[in-house]
Amino acid sequence: MSIIYTAKATSTGGRDGHVATDDGAIECDLSLPGSNKKGPNPEQFFAAGYSACFGQALEAVAEQKGIKPDSIEVQASVSLHKQNNAFHLSVKLDGHLPGLSRKDAEFLMKEAHKICPYSKAVSAGIVIELSLSGTDVKAAA
């Protein structure tokens, strides 16, 4: 496997600190969820990255299969959970694919989930839910 891109970021001060990428594209103070500080938190960065990556996977599958939605929009909701003093994340991906039948839209969601790098990276250790316009889609195993 050849590496085509590597992103590098450095943080100081943890979840209430500062983060910057080596290329300067991101440089900001972080804030804890629910605090009065202005600034994103790690869950927001994760949601933004996952929604963009999954959207690109949807576009790739749609083009490959000749299925043409009017547009592609993905909303990623990333939730932080605490259970028995341990933290974990869950993700819900909600695709909006107007102009497609439910069958075609579900097919694209399932196929995109198979090829999306974020989905592959987290599938073993994070709960991932798929939905279309708010309605659940069962992920393929």
Short description:
The protein has 141 residues and is an alpha+beta fold. It is built from 3 helices and 7 strands. It has helices at 42-65, 102-115, 117-122, and strands at 9-12, 18-21, 27-29, 73-83, 86-96, 127-132, 135-137.
**Helical segment count:** 3
Largest beta-sheet characterization: 4 strands, mixed
CATH classification class of the largest domain: Alpha Beta
Sequence of secondary-structure elements: EEEHEEHHEE
Topology, number of strands = 7
Mean pLDDT: 92
Q: Write down the Rg.
A: 17 Å
- CATH topology assignment of the largest domain: GMP Synthetase, Chain A, domain 3
Shape, please?
globular
Helix amount, in percent?
A: 25-40%
**How many domain regions?**
2
Distance between the termini: 23 Å
Q: Report the sheet-strand fraction.
A: 25-35%
CATH homology-level superfamily of the largest domain: K homology (KH) domain
Tell me which CATH architecture of the largest domain applies here.
2-Layer Sandwich
Could you outline the blueprint of secondary structure elements for this entry?
Layout: E1 9-12, E2 18-21, E3 27-29, H1 42-65, E4 73-83, E5 86-96, H2 102-115, H3 117-122, E6 127-132, E7 135-137
Parallel strand pairs: 5-6
Antiparallel strand pairs: 1-2, 2-3, 4-5, 6-7
What does this structure look like?
This protein has 141 residues and is α+β, with helices and mostly antiparallel strands. The protein folds into 2 domains: 1-40, N-terminal domain of TfIIb (Single Sheet), CATH 2.20.25; 42-136, 2-Layer Sandwich (GMP Synthetase, Chain A, domain 3). Helix content is 31%, strand content 30%. Strands 4-5-6-7 form a 4-stranded mixed sheet, covered by helices on one side. The chain has a 3-stranded antiparallel sheet with strand order 1-2-3, with no helix packed on it. Strand 2 and strand 3 (27-29) form a beta hairpin. Helix 1 packs across helix 2. The longest helix is centred in the middle third of the chain and has 24 residues, at 42-65. The protein is globular and about 45 Å long.
